[in-house]
Amino acid sequence: MARVNIDPQHAPSTSQALLGQIHQAFGATPNMFKAVANSPVALQSMWAAFGALSKGSIGAKLGEQLAVAIANRNRCEYCLAAHTVLGQKAGATSAEMAAAQVGDASDAKTAAALAFALKVVEQRAQLADADITRLREVGFGDEQIVEILAHVALNLFTNYINVALDVPVDFPKVALK
Fold first, then answer.
1. pLDDT (tens digit, 9 = 90+) per residue, 31-90?
2. Which pTM was predicted?
3. Can you tell me the distance from the alpha carbon of 143 to that of 155, in angstroms, rounded to the nearest whole number?
4. Alpha-carbon distance values, 168 to 29, 41, 67, 110 (Å)
5. Residue 103: what are its φ and ψ, rounded to 5°?
6. CA 75, 78, 80, 83: dihedral to nearest 10 degrees?
7. Distance between CA 167 and CA 161 in Å, rounded?
8. Distance in angstroms (rounded) separating the CA atoms of residues 88 and 40
9. Average pLDDT for 93-108
């Protein structure tokens, strides 16, 4: 049971317009956004970040693969379920999403991005020059490297919201690995 209100009718009035946009985008209002709506500024920040990153140069598929890897590492069942669905909508196969969940990929570029993101999470961004060099070797430039870090940050935010507030999963469940 959620540790905060998840009834959108009880969300602050200043959250209502964004909740409407979110509902329109998903065809429903996911519980995570209902929980975040308790803070209009947090909801605005999260929704804006999703919107901005959706236009990024790394592509939606890789963004969703990063999200499931980070969710699995942080044991966030909500984000794992949601981003597995979103990844498949972005063109990933079930097998690709399952592999990404544990930081694996069949292509070197995706594998490098996943390994980098998980290292950022595990080592709290304490990286070596070689970590950035590896990304460059597989074809990532500065823009993509910064975007990968932005995806890590956004996913940490959503993972922490869902785990700390025990937000009920309203997507098809996916088992943690």
1. 999 999 999 999 999 999 999 999 999 999 999 999 999 999 999 999 999 999 999 999
2. 0.97
3. 18
4. 13, 22, 18, 30
5. 80, 20
6. -150
7. 8
8. 30
9. 98
What tokens appear for 36 in the block? Answer: 């975040």
- Tens digits of residue pLDDT in 130-158: 999 999 999 999 999 999 999 999 999 99
pLDDT at 1 over 90: no
Q: What DSSP letter does each residue of the chain carry, written as one string?
A: --SS---GGGS-GGGHHHHHHHHHHHSS--HHHHHHTTSHHHHHHHHHHHHHHTTSTT-HHHHHHHHHHHHHHTT-HHHHHHHHHHHHHTT--HHHHHHHHTT--SSHHHHHHHHHHHHHHHTTT---HHHHHHHHHTT--HHHHHHHHHHHHHHHHHHHHHHHTTPPP-S------
| CA gap 50, 130 in Å, rounded | 29
* Rounded Cα–Cα distance for residues 123 and 59 (Å): 25
